[in-house]
Automatic annotation (TrEMBL):
GO-annotated biological processes: DNA repair
UniProt protein name: phosphoglycolate phosphatase
Phylogenetic placement of the source organism: Bacteria, Pseudomonadati, Pseudomonadota, Alphaproteobacteria, Rhodobacterales
Gene: gph_1
Catalyzed chemical reaction(s): 2-phosphoglycolate + H2O = glycolate + phosphate
InterPro entries to which the protein is assigned, alphabetical: HAD-like_hydrolase_sf, HAD-like_sf, HAD-SF_hydro_IA, HAD_sf, PGP-like_dom2
Family under the similarity heading: Belongs to the HAD-like hydrolase superfamily. CbbY/CbbZ/Gph/YieH family.
Pfam families listed in its UniProt record: Hydrolase
GO terms of molecular function: phosphoglycolate phosphatase activity
Length: 221
């Protein structure tokens, strides 16, 4: 079965505003105020909680304080869980593309480096979890992207064939995952990292989800 697998943050949804808010809650707890900007630091936010904490600590002159970053990380996750869908929005056309692919006989799934519990919570809050045949997160398996087994197992859980799949993403991590798995990658050009994705050399870059069905047909039939 042909399968289209989606990354979540920066690919299906712009989650950066809620991620930055969670990181800033940590810095306020440290008594230093907001250290991240929801617009300027959106790209960093989509690289995950530790990336945001590391950037904020660098701005405090404490970039080497790994112990504090480790201490703050679970605090960030809890703050994020409490307000996970305040600012988050699905990208235009994303769910229409997912529905169209499903109707055309493709399996669709999510493979994200967000913790699975939080990914499922967000998809439930957005009302779209049921549109996907499988969802795996950073802690679902013993490995995570860019390890190709994360992608392959996601496809298998969706009922698909890992060698008849592709990964839709927005970062070098997604590109490297697909390449390691021996399948095509389609990167989105409309997220915070969009300006640089073409330089990676994916099989396709899309500027809007309207383009995805045709690209999928071309790449995996």
């Amino acid at each position: 079965m042909r399968t289209v697998v989606f990354d979540l943050d920066g690919t299906l949804a712009d989650t950066s505003g809620d991620l930055v808010a969670a990181a800033n809650a940590c810095f306020r707890g440290l008594g230093v105020g907001d250290m991240l900007d929801p617009v300027a630091d959106a790209g960093v936010a989509l690289r995950g909680g530790r990336a945001m904490l590391s950037l904020g600590m660098e701005r405090l002159g404490r970039g080497a304080d790994v112990a504090e970053i480790d201490r703050q990380y679970p605090i960030l996750l809890e703050a994020y869980a409490q307000a996970i869908d305040v600012h988050t929005t699905l990208y235009p056309g994303a769910m229409e593309a997912v529905a169209g692919l499903s109707d055309a006989g493709y399996k669709v799934a999510i493979c994200t480096n967000k913790p699975e519990r939080l990914a499922r919570l967000l998809m439930e809050r957005l009302g779209v979890l049921g549109a996907f045949a499988a969802l795996t997160g950073a802690d679902t398996l013993a490995v995570r992207k860019p390890d190709p087994e994360h992608l392959r197992e996601t496809v298998r859980r969706a009922g698909g064939d890992p060698m008849r799949s592709l990964l839709v993403g927005d970062t070098v991590t997604d590109f490297d995952t697909a390449r390691a798995a021996g399948v095509p990658s389609v990167l989105v050009g409309f997220g915070p990292n969009g300006a640089a994705v073409a330089d990676l050399g994916p099989e396709a870059v899309i500027g809007h989800y309207d383009e995805l069905p045709g690209v999928v047909t071309r790449l995996i039939g």
